[in-house]
Amino acid sequence: MDSIPAARLVSCESNATPGRWRVSRLVFEVPINYADERSESIRLFARSVLRDERPIVRPHDQTEFDQVPYLVFLQGGPGFGCPDPQSISSLTNYVLNRGYQLLLLDYRGTGLSTPVNARHLRSLGSPQDQANYLKFFRADNIVRDCEAVRKCLTENYAEGRKMWSLLGQSYGGFVSLTYLSKYPHGLREVFLTGGLAPIKRTAEEVYRATYKKAIERNEAYYRKFPMDVARIRKILNYIQKREGGISLPAGGLLTVQRFLTLGMAFGFHGGFDTVNSTIFRMSSDLDQFGFFTRATLRAVEEDTPFDSNPIYAILHESVYCTKKGEASNWAAARVGAELPLFGWTKDEDNLLPVTPPFFSGEMIFPFHFETHPELKEMREAANILASFDGWDELYNEEQLRVNVVPVYAASYVDDIYVDFEFARETAKIVRKIKVYETNVLYHNALKAKTEEVLDHLFALRDDSLD
Description:
Shape: globular
GO biological process, one term: proteolysis
Largest sheet: 9 strands, mixed
Pfam families: Abhydrolase_1
GO molecular function, one term: peptidase activity
Keywords: Hydrolase
């Protein structure tokens, strides 16, 4: 395990809502490459949230009052910054009520943590130079950042208070398993929601499993909204007649292929209704005007926000490349091309005429780098990364088998993003884990049904079997 220097705290500003929260905005500096002391620095942005306590009599010993243990929320993705505490107020209040202070850390390259963007990448040089830069934005360096920040924030803590807890949602669970593999000494406990990564599986195996689940969800969608079969056909026919696609307000293109990626929402609570609302709106436009209005195209554009979160597209498949010798080679596209129901992923004219068109799930395709303007500028670097097979190891299976950090996981049977059987396979490897399995919650349950999920996880922690 490599030694990580403490991050440098650049700035801290706090504000409080009396009787509620004290929120601090923190900015740190860390090296982009921890293996090279001379490498450039990048910035990490975080918010810490504490209950705004106003005791009548201040405690004589301030240690317990000031050194509240941290729980770090690790966001899903990859490629998305953390939400602000107000937008996840149910989670924020739950964590604070349990006696923690909450840390919301934007992963490197996301949110306000030196966010990856096309203009900055261009300044780095050739597509190969850009790809070399982007290689530093995976989970292995994310956990190094976390350790560097932990050392900084807990420098003056009493020795028994320096460890912190993790709450990893989805990809945040993947990051947590990497953390357990590399720096378990920094962790008190780990909570996972939909984040038991398929650590023994290749990208191709992952997508073969998730396409099967996507088929199930498409079938369920059409059972709920059978009237959308005709609406979707009408929409697809209209798009196909516009050669080259339909221009979107922010400069992208709406094509048949991009439209059929709206199924990414099928794994969420309320996801069916979200997609149905979009389809109804588009169909209504065609009925009334014979074209899509700007407002409708703007809504469609926001359903796949890869231009503002480009890491999601660029490095998504690399999260399944867990060791040297593995390259993704656009695994989702290769597997989809073999499946008749998803033939459109290879050729948008290849839509089965006798069945409802099937939407893809959480897959990234080369055509995303043609239909999203920010991604289009990163296309060559993305292709280089797709063929790269020199990735560092993300998980240490030997370390996970002797793990001593308590882990509490929620695993969802009908998860279209993290295959349930692969999650079970991983759970069998991790020592000191307790798993809550359910078929009545979907992947975004932490956000949709916060208290229900966290109650189950803390029950795993607090209840004894014997």
